[in-house]
Predict the structure.
Amino acid sequence: MELATPCLLVDETKLKENIRRMAELSQKTRTALRPHVKTHKTAEIAHMQMAAGAVGITVAKVSEAEVMAAAGIGDIFVAYPLVTEEKIERALDLCERNCIVFALDSVEGARMLSQATIRRGKRVEARLEIDTGMRRTGVPPAQAARLAQAIRDLAGIDLRGIFTFRGAMIDGKGTLDRRTAGLDEGRTMAGLAEQLRAGGTDIVEVSVGSTPTAESAATVTGVTEVRPGTYVFNDRMQVAYGACSIDDCALSVLVTVVSTPSSGRIVVDGGSKTFSTDAVPGSPPLCLRGHGEVLGSPDLLLDRLSEEHGVIELAKDASPAKKPRIGDRLRIIPNHVCTTVNLHSRLWLVDALGKPTRELSIAARGMVT
Amino acid sequence: MELATPCLLVDETKLKENIRRMAELSQKTRTALRPHVKTHKTAEIAHMQMAAGAVGITVAKVSEAEVMAAAGIGDIFVAYPLVTEEKIERALDLCERNCIVFALDSVEGARMLSQATIRRGKRVEARLEIDTGMRRTGVPPAQAARLAQAIRDLAGIDLRGIFTFRGAMIDGKGTLDRRTAGLDEGRTMAGLAEQLRAGGTDIVEVSVGSTPTAESAATVTGVTEVRPGTYVFNDRMQVAYGACSIDDCALSVLVTVVSTPSSGRIVVDGGSKTFSTDAVPGSPPLCLRGHGEVLGSPDLLLDRLSEEHGVIELAKDASPAKKPRIGDRLRIIPNHVCTTVNLHSRLWLVDALGKPTRELSIAARGMVT
């Protein structure tokens, strides 16, 4: 069967090996693994992660939790502050049949959650988000104790954990290596947990770790859980971070060469509505060249994207024999796989030869609320 | 009713005015209007464009044509080279009940189309794509005559037109103004059509024009059709091009402030899975600052995006009274509306006060093949 392009191919052997390897890390370090499903948004892959030993999953959106709960994943951490009644009520609805853990980073959000739990006569588990350098949501470590105290004074909330997303290696200059970043992340959070316990808050869960930092963060005493996401597929960004090799990238985008209008240019049928245009922050080598690279031909880069066109410029000394021709199919490893998957409604599992074996629905794609 | 955020809001009055204004241009210049539906991917909005006088629509993908044809839009130009049997067969299936116009930019593609039409005992209408500076698909003007001749020698294809997408104002430095770009585009194409006619190819349709260039390109004698897309909604990129004002932007993304973790930072619940991260090519002012701006507060920019977080940094001298608070809802005008819409499955038509009146399905979203 010829698949219509562009489409997402996932090498099932590599996918399973990526899942196995992270599960093994979690076992070796006696750290719970709660993968973030933002990368795949696919129920079947979440089930593979659970079967390999994950304790539950992480999502960013209540609607993602709704999709995953409906697919039978019952232990879900919504790692995002919910501050509107509508979202809190939907998350509480899910609590009826599932274990849902809430995220808090403000008194306002905590009060709203508390009031909703009181109305229902419920208690819920929550974790405090800590900002360890990403400068987005989360309170700075120095303000955590005060917020924890405020939450303890509210009914209906068991504040049992703290969590952070440290990101890869961003230290303002993009120069910190991923191992140092992970150790730093783990130690900051483990230290903060001690401090909060000393202040009377019973912190049980210390949850950290992204794909590049999980390996070292998991080794820090006091860290209880890691939440990597991208590792299931990997991408060029993770290769640049040193978190994997290009051979560990399980997902590629299958495209067709539709035009070779001049001697040095090849146009494929995937552009910015097929590949993510996310730029990688930081200095080289983190600023990746191109928007993706052709599997097996690392010198062929997706140089320019418009919405439905991907342009590959050939080197001047490229051999004409190696130039792809109209109708040829190429597999391209994207820069950022999470936002690329988010552009598609389905993916194909393929065998080692690239032969499709099963179509999976990216059921939580578009679950923006 | 409170809408769950993030979500797309379309001011129906502005939408209709944008549609009316472009239709009026088409009438005044006696140029056919065949809008590209890539921007909205929404059947109801295509019908509004048809009702205002469009002769048909333009799409980039056969799957988009399938959605629009099923919704009752019967005259569709697939402005993209189809070079695989599977796609050509699907497009020919659509020809049974609709008027489908094909795009060609290679002998290989033309031969494949010809063979498929012979098998079906059909004739189809086609247009030749010309590269007038975008350096993606399309043959350079100097090679058009030879390709036109080759196509005339093939059975089953009526080569009746030429088309181009010139893009906005890119002249390698990003300095060409949109009026000059449009005139240049129109004249190049009208001149080429004359030349092809002199060579014996009966070119009837000369199709040009994007949102920024349509206005001037439509005035060029010999141009018969314009195909703008973005004008229905407009965006910050079109404002930067001078093609509209910020008040003409019909689409905004409604977001909720979820966190204000430090005095100068506001985090909203939309990131790179909600807003497009497309960079605008060229020099300033085309390199837009930020990923979007808050409607009514042009000094509030979406400074940084991660997947589900949008970060707004406040100016140091910003008045605390004007600082958005947790739970506040903001409407953000995106940089590039086409790729932003592509991230969502539905949009809301709203009245002038922002009150939702009707939910529309973005039915052709995800139609990547």
User: Anything to note?
Assistant: Chain B has a mean pLDDT of 94.
